[in-house]
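Fold it.
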Amino acid sequence: MGLAFAIALKRSLPSAAVRVLEARALPSGAPSALDSRATALNLASRDILTSWGIWPQIEAVGAAIKAIHVSSRGRFGSAVMEASDVGEAALGYVVENHFVGAALLKLAADSGVVLQAPAGVTGVDVSGASPAILRGEEAPIVADLVVIADGADSSLCHHLGVNMVRRDVKQRAVAANVRFEGVSEGTAWERFTEHGPIALLPLPDDVSGSQRYNLIWSMHPDESRALEGADDAEFLQALQRAVGWRLGRLTDVGRRTAWDLSRISVREQVRAGIVIAGNAAHTLHPVAGQGFNLSLRDASRLAQTLAVTRGRGEDSLSLPALRQYESAVAKDQQETTRATDFLATLFRSRGVFLDLPRDAALVGLDLLVPLRRTIARRGTGKGMDLVHEGRH
């Protein structure tokens, strides 16, 4: 996520020297079709990447989400949201991470952003007039602005004594790519199960000619670890039971990764010379795939705030300017977090009678077109008062 913030900063401050310090060496080559990881990009992200001039190459390798089918295993409730509900050709797009990363890396290089990888960072010294990035035995780097984007439960935030709010959601997520027989029709599937929510995001069909999906399956940690240790046949059998046969027969699963889910947010996202960004500032449940999209909107708003303050002749990197940015992102972050938490709670099975209102709500969502359109539009990220900075 730090790369996106670096690009946004460089676009707002073209004469600034912008450097990205990446902890690990960048991977080379492309993963296999079943071992890649993917990100769901909503329409607001599409618009930002369009303003950056890189959307065409990203769209060319992605899969459009033309509909979202929401259902409950063994229950009567279901709903379908379609792109026509928001007057668009798609509700969003699913793109493998290595393609998004390659496009951002090229844009960063073309824009003059310097990338160092691997580059160990041990802390940030804020005792001087400007923050200094500490790098162990290497000389510190003094900067006018440091953007901290080292992921959830940020070690740099701990180093600075930033107060974090953490809530364990008592779930663990399993991610993998899977294949079904047949050809994808561009539908994303959200499935309630007694174990937890399942999201299946369509990927471009590969050379095998089969449907390929990116799977995110959240469940109790004990159940997750049992599946993590299962062989491919056992895993596919369990997943087939959970998702049913609407998509056909599961045939393959790729490399699986898993992680414990928790909700983390920081009490302050800016200090003098410091911006805390991405998952370091806020982590979301993956049920709605909103984490990357929210962070990309944050990056766009930072660029917008810097451009406005610079246009007024003010110091665009001053603490008052950074506080304007913090205020500008607050509403979007709060609403996105509440919506994601609500979905995560809704997706949790609580028993037959407590689940009845949820099932009825799904039926109502399918029948009440205005409500369905409102929810679909909120998921696209559109209408969040974004003003994309002009191209440089």
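The chain has a mean pLDDT of 86.
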